[in-house]
Amino acid sequence: MPVKFQCIIIKDLPDIGQVMVWVLPEKMKNLHFVSVMGYEYSGLKIDSVIPQTQDIEFTFTIKNTGNMAGKETALVFIRDCVSSVVTPVACLKGFEKVSLNPGESKDIRIVIPYSDLGLWNEDMKYVVESGKFNLMIGRSVEDIRIKKDFFIK
């Protein structure tokens, strides 16, 4: 039986256009829907200690656990845990978009240039400081699927 959704136009914004919300009919609100899309992140491999000036290279696997082909974009965030100046909690440093069939897995390899870990210190010099970093990978900064720490020595 086809389901008819009700469309409600909330506002017509000049720069964006119409903002719409799709609402389920009242009789459908207590039903549970099975997701047809799902992705599993696993197998994050990175050296725990990385020498100064060496690029940061790591691999991980994404698997389509759903029953439909789809595309997934893995976002790579890095946090400098201990720095001489205040830094963001997470900085987007890279991403990879993959197309996966149901049940298919792909190994992803990403290299982040060493200089991308730098910051402007109190003397206004761009430097990469030694110390602990968090590598976080997921669908968004609020949906981190795998993470590991590494150290720049």
Spatial separation of the terminal alpha carbons: 62 Å
Number of helices: 0
Estimate the global geometry from the Cα principal axes. elongated
Helix/strand order, N-terminal first: EEEEEEEEEEEE
User: Class by helix and strand content?
Assistant: mainly beta
Query: What's the number of extended β-strand segments?
Result: 12
Q: Low-confidence parts lasting 5 or more residues at pLDDT below 50?
A: 5-11, 31-35
DSSP strand content: over 45%
Biggest sheet record: 5 strands, mixed
**What's the helical proportion of residues?**
under 10%
Structure description:
- With 153 residues, the protein is mainly beta.
- Helix content is 0%, strand content 57%.
- It has no helices and 12 strands.
- The strands form 4 sheets. A 5-stranded mixed β-sheet has the order 4-12-11-6-7, with no helix packed on it. A 3-stranded antiparallel β-sheet has the order 3-5-8, with no helix packed on it. A two-stranded antiparallel ribbon has the order 1-2.
- The chain is elongated.
- About 8% of the residues have low confidence.
